[in-house]
Write a structure and sequence with these properties.
Layout (H helix, E strand, L loop, with lengths): L10 E4 L4 E5 L10 E4 L2 H9 L6 H17 L6 H16 L6 H16 L5 H31 L7 E4 L16 H8 L5 E5 L6 H12 L3 E5 L4 H6 L5 E4 L3 E3 L4 E4 L2 H11 L3 E4 L5 E2 L16 H4 L19 E4 L6 E4 L2 E3 L3 H8 L2
Parallel strand pairs: 4-5, 4-7, 5-6, 7-10, 8-11, 10-13
Antiparallel strand pairs: 1-2, 2-3, 8-9, 9-12, 13-14
Helix pairs in contact: 1-2, 2-3, 2-4, 2-5, 3-4, 4-5, 5-6
The chain binds 5-S-methyl-1-O-phosphono-5-thio-D-ribulose.
Keywords: Amino-acid biosynthesis, Isomerase, Methionine biosynthesis
Organism: Mesobacillus zeae
Subunit structure: Homodimer.
Length: about 350
């Protein structure tokens, strides 16, 4: 049987046409449209406007973007080509601050550039393309492995609550938090998934509910403020979420609202698991205090998804896109190399070995 997630590839390179092809995630679930982007400015906009979103997918898009930006350069000496690469890298790095995968992918492209020192411009460009393709291909394997480890924590028939979208369209394939659900689906685990709608940009409603439904998974859409009642009613046996950055002590930044879900899960005795590719673990951040939380425009709360304004004109808003879940609320962090348990300062570094 074809795996249900194989159909959707949200980020890919069309090298022959010098284009980044992106599934426009802002149009889902109403329209499945692929954008064809050539200009760095359009790629920057696509990341900022969440046309491509989800930490791993942002990293992959940035890797392809910096490759395409460098490919265009007319510089023929290694040093001048590097200057153009650096400009493109810094520009793309300014698109969103929280998901560390963006910086991780760009740094990895940088390291590859430096490894090619002394090569011709053509050879360096080919190496960059190879590296970007590797980043994408590796993410596919990483997600599958996270899915296997996470599945070992779950039992058939369980109710699983998730927040935001950490699914196939947020990664190269399979997703992180949704990977065990897809793998379980293939094994007949019959999970019942509760998808928080995820205000204000509704990634849970528009994306998670959509992609799980497309894959034939039993999914129930709830508003964010209903997480408590479904837990209280015993409908949820585990919470699985993705993440944008994990600090060395296990504090985890993920979509706004995640920390509230973790607090509820603790109250109701439901295990709360974070699914984190190692590209999302940032040991340079000691705690969640070191993670830069992105603030986004008011319109996302008041008007963006509505025909009429949903708040009085000029009302003050506060719109942080992420929050940090305290490591004490996290039962385990599932990586591609195994599951890290508290104390995370000791278990997370071991995952890299
Ligand atoms: O603002 P977004 O939609 O990019 O936020 C995405 C999330 O918070 C996801 O949970 C996270 O990036 C993990 S995706 C595998």
């Amino acid at each position: 049987m074809e795996k249900p997630v194989e159909a959707i590839q949200s980020v890919r390179l069309d090298d022959d046409r010098d284009m980044l092809i992106l599934l426009d995630q802002t149009l889902l679930p109403n329209e499945k449209k692929f954008l064809e982007l050539k200009e760095l400015k359009d790629i920057w906009d696509a990341i900022y406007l969440l046309k491509v979103r989800g930490a791993p997918a942002i990293g992959i898009a940035a890797a392809y973007g910096v490759y395409l930006g460098t490919k265009k350069s007319e510089a023929d000496a290694y040093e001048s080509l590097y200057a153009d690469f650096k400009k493109a890298k810094e520009y793309l790095a300014s698109s969103r601050p929280t998901a560390v995968n963006l910086f991780w992918a760009l740094d990895r492209m940088d390291a590859r550039f430096k490894k090619e020192e002394g090569k011709t411009a053509g050879e360096v460009k080919l190496a960059l393309k190879e590296e970007a393709e590797l980043i994408r291909a590796e993410d596919e394997k990483v997600c599958e492995s996270i899915g296997q480890y996470a599945l070992s924590l779950l039992e058939p028939g369980w109710g699983i609550l998730t927040h935001c979208n950490a699914g196939t369209i947020a990664t190269a394939k399979y997703g992180t938090a949704l990977a065990p659900i897809y793998l379980g689906q293939e094994k007949g685990y019959d999970f019942k998934v509760f998808a928080d709608e995820t205000r204000p940009l509704l990634q849970g409603a528009r994306l998670t509910a959509w992609e799980l439904q497309e894959a034939g998974v039993d999914v129930t859409l709830i508003c964010d403020n209903m997480a408590s009642i479904v837990m209280k009613e015993g409908k949820v046996q585990a919470v699985l979420v993705g993440c944008d950055r994990v600090a060395a002590n296990g504090d985890t930044a993920n979509k706004i609202g995640t920390s509230g879900v973790a607090i509820l899960a603790k109250h109701y005795g439901v295990p709360f698991y974070v699914c984190a590719p190692l590209s999302t673990v940032d040991l340079k951040c000691k705690t969640g205090e070191d993670i830069h939380i992105e603030l986004r425009p008011s319109e996302e709360i008041t008007t963006q998804w509505y025909e009429k304004p949903m708040g009085p004109k000029d009302v003050k808003t506060y719109n942080p896109a992420f929050d940090v879940t305290d490591h004490k609320l996290i039962a385990g962090i599932v990586t591609e190399n195994g599951i890290a348990y508290a104390p995370f300062t000791e278990s997370l570094p071991k995952m890299f070995k």
